[in-house]
Design brief:
The complex is a heterodimer of chains A (about 400) and B (about 250).
Chain A (H helix, E strand, L loop, with lengths): L1 H17 L1 H37 L5 E5 L13 H9 L3 E15 L6 E9 L9 E4 L9 E5 H7 L6 E8 L2 E13 L9 E5 H7 L4 H5 L7 E6 L5 H11 L3 E5 H6 L4 H33 L1 H9 L4 H32 L11 H28 L2 H4 L5
Parallel strand pairs in A: 3-8, 5-7
Antiparallel strand pairs in A: 1-9, 1-10, 2-3, 2-6, 2-9, 4-7, 5-8, 6-7
Chain B lengths: L10 E12 L2 E9 L2 E2 L4 E5 L6 H8 L7 E6 L2 E2 L5 H10 L1 E4 L11 H11 L5 H13 L15 H13 L5 E5 L7 H18 L2 E5 L11 E6 L2 E6 L2 H9 L4
Parallel strand pairs in B: 4-9, 4-10, 7-8, 8-9
Antiparallel strand pairs in B: 1-2, 1-3, 1-5, 5-6, 10-11
Helix pairs in contact in B: 3-4, 3-5, 5-6
Bound molecules: adenosine-5'-triphosphate and magnesium ion.
Adenosine-5'-triphosphate binds next to strand 1, strand 2 and helix 1 of chain B.
């Protein structure tokens, strides 16, 4: 066994080294495939994260929507009465109104505005993200905001600064000044950086239609719910649905899947990644298959002088692994170098787990692609390969 | 003085038959061949095209199973062995040079020779030294580190001869070792080959078309239509009846 490994590794390495140009070319193809797969994965992660970041980090478990809103936050309308009803359901520890809107941030140094998600949350209740700098919101009506890290980076605003947002209410453009009292980690919503405003302030400053301008009843989109026992998701869900009129309830997972375009986008990117891996398997498989066809005589010699099938097979596998590992390593390095050149606005996020899964998949494509060629190598008959038999 | 039955040969075949089935009936590629070869004996296998030389050699090399009969190498019957046992025999007891494509193209001359020892897990300092000595004996002192592609056909053939001998096999087989060489080179190669076989006390068999090469062998076996039709048993017989008769 030991002899088989030492002989086959010796043969494999010698062959790769003496034909390093050819093998490097294949490694480069694998490197490019690696680059592509990692970027698709990072793009999926970046876009997905930009969409779901706030919800996935939510300090609650359930989201209550207006009935028949198909779990679309923007399509749902809920008011205070419903909030009170939700709070009365057994197992609900806390609930908070949540309203979403888009607004433009006027930047002091730039003529362009920054589009942000203007999110209304109830201070001290579920939905208010933890600040990493500054303080939490205090009262429902204060003209204070928390901004997320993305808003801070892209607007260049800091703690204590005043920010100005522009929204359209009715037919007029209105400007509102708010003070930044806290900064959170990344909390993107709908691919936009976010600004968190106390709910009743939010209701006052959000974009409104002509009709809404004159109505005085504040309306949120959904109600965020925190449970006393996070394991009771299903039963509380049922409780809310039964005890509160005209609502539907989603877990965070369901809510994320229902985000506009989210599932479609993720499955598109996953399919692309899968196809790229598949192409990789075909390319590597094709290369090693052709290579084996060229090596029939040489493998015949090895077998004739007493190298057994295990030796030949292990040498092929080892070679494929070497070529794949080198290719994936080069690809990983290239990806890393490229990633350094991307501005923070590009939605590319290299997530450890996703990248690791992609890398493992990439390391498997070589051996998978090479399987057929190994089968072929094992089947070569020395007598025929040497042309001794007519 | 001795009963020849009791003498042990390095190689002994008993009524070896190899038949192939084809559309036009059964082909008797090798038909009832019994031969004995002792250690230190170098034998040539000659005969017209299609007479069964390659088929015979392939069976002796443990590359092909006979239809019936026995092939005893150091007393062990190749005919009854399974694939794995035959691979082991090829690795340990047999040395083989082929007509062409002999060498592993990505290994240098000396690495090709050493490979035989590696396969047997016997590559040590002395082994490496012996590989170099053997190549030097074959006139390749300057070519040790050349790849096969950087050597002439004759040089490659000599590397193959070194590889066929380095692991001290009982049986050394050569299929047309001179086919790609000019006459002068051919003489040189066969002469050195014969010298090494005698000196190292191996049993050697060479298939050749070139009857002049029989000058260096101890015995010539003539095949025809799969049958062993005649043996030339000593040097005089070979020189007078075989070589000069044809020129
Ligand atoms: N695999 C095979 N299938 C069918 N017939 C075969 C096969 N191998 C050899 N033969 C036949 O067996 C006979 C002997 O062939 P072999 O190759 O041993 O001859 P040879 O003496 O080596 O000839 P040459 O001098 O031309 O190389 C021929 O008639 C050949 O056609
Ligand atoms: Mg032949």
């Amino acid at each position: 066994m030991r002899t088989i490994f030492s002989v086959s590794n010796y043969l494999a390495i010698k062959e790769v080294w003496r034909n390093r140009g050819r093998f490097l070319l294949v490694s480069m193809v694998i490197a490019l495939i690696t680059l592509l797969v990692l970027f698709i994965a990072a793009l999926g992660e970046g876009l997905g994260n930009g969409n779901r970041e706030y919800i996935s980090k939510l300090n609650g478990e359930l989201i209550v929507y207006q009935a028949k809103s198909d779990f679309l936050i923007a399509a749902s309308r809920l008011d205070n009465n419903r909030l009170a009803a939700v709070r009365r359901v057994d197992g609900v520890a806390d609930a908070g109104l949540f309203g979403t809107a888009s607004a433009n941030l006027i930047l002091p140094t730039d003529s362009e505005t920054l589009k942000v998600a203007l999110l209304g949350i109830e201070p001290g209740h579920v939905g208010e993200p933890k600040v990493v700098q500054g303080q939490q919101l205090s009262t429902d009506l204060a003209e204070e905001v928390i901004i997320d890290r993305n808003t801070a980076i892209r607007s260049n605003l800091a703690l204590g600064d005043e920010l100005v947002i522009r929204v359209t209410q009715g037919i007029k453009d209105e400007f509102f000044k708010l003070r930044i009292i806290g900064i959170t980690d990344g909390q993107q919503y709908s691919l936009q950086p976010s600004v968190f405003v106390p709910f009743y302030t939010w209701d006052r400053i959000r974009p409104k239609s002509e009709a809404e301008v004159n109505s005085s009843n504040p309306v949120a989109n959904v109600i965020l719910v925190k449970l006393s026992d996070p394991a009771q998701v299903e039963s509380v869900k049922l409780g809310i649905t039964n005890q509160v009129n005209n609502v539907e309830v989603a877990s965070l997972k369901q809510a994320i899947q229902a985000l506009p375009g989210y599932s479609a986008q993720q499955s598109t990117l996953n399919t692309q990644g899968g196809f790229t891996l598949f192409i990789g398997i075909l390319v590597i498989g094709g290369f090693f298959q052709i290579q084996i066809l060229q090596k029939v005589a040489q493998i015949g010699v090895l077998k004739a002088i007493g190298a057994g099938n295990p030796t030949v097979a292990v040498a092929s596998i080892f070679q494929i692994i070497v070529v794949t590992v080198i290719g994936v390593a080069i690809g990983g390095l290239l990806t890393f170098l490229f990633s350094l050149t991307f501005p923070p606005t590009v939605p590319i996020v290299f997530n450890g787990t996703t990248s690791a899964i992609a890398l493992i998949a990439l390391l498997l494509i070589g051996p998978l692609g090479g399987l057929i060629s190994i089968r072929y190598a094992v089947r070569i008959e020395p007598l025929k390969a040497l042309g001794l038999s007519s | 003085m001795n009963n020849s039955e009791q003498k042990t040969y390095a190689l002994e075949t008993k009524t070896v038959i190899k038949t192939y089935q084809s559309d036009s009936g059964t082909i008797h590629a090798v038909d009832d061949v019994s031969i004995q070869i002792s250690s230190g004996e170098f034998v040539a296998l000659v005969g017209p095209s299609g007479s069964g030389k390659t088929t015979m050699l392939s069976m002796l090399a443990a590359l092909l199973q006979p239809t019936s009969g026995k092939i005893l190498l150091d007393g062990q019957d190749l005919a009854t062995m399974d694939d794995r046992q035959r691979v082991t025999m090829r690795r340990e007891k047999i040395g083989f040079t082929f007509q062409a494509n002999n060498l592993v193209p990505y290994l240098s001359a000396v690495e090709n020779v050493e490979l035989m020892l590696r396969l047997n897990d016997k590559l040590d300092k002395t082994g490496k030294l012996r590989a170099r000595e053997l190549l030097a004996r074959l006139g390749l002192a300057e070519r040790m580190n050349n790849l096969p592609g950087q050597m002439s056909g004759g040089q490659q053939q000599r590397v193959a001869i070194a590889r066929a001998l380095i692991h001290n096999p009982s049986l050394v087989l050569a299929d047309e070792p001179t086919a790609s060489l000019d006459t002068e080179r051919a003489y040189q190669v066969v002469q050195t080959f014969a010298g090494l076989i005698h000196e190292q006390n191996r049993a050697g068999i060479m298939v050749t078309h070139d009857l002049r090469m029989c000058e260096f062998v101890d015995r010539v076996l003539l095949m025809q239509d799969g049958k062993l039709v005649r043996t030339y048993d000593n040097h005089d017989e070979i020189m007078n009846e075989l070589i000069s008769a044809r020129h």
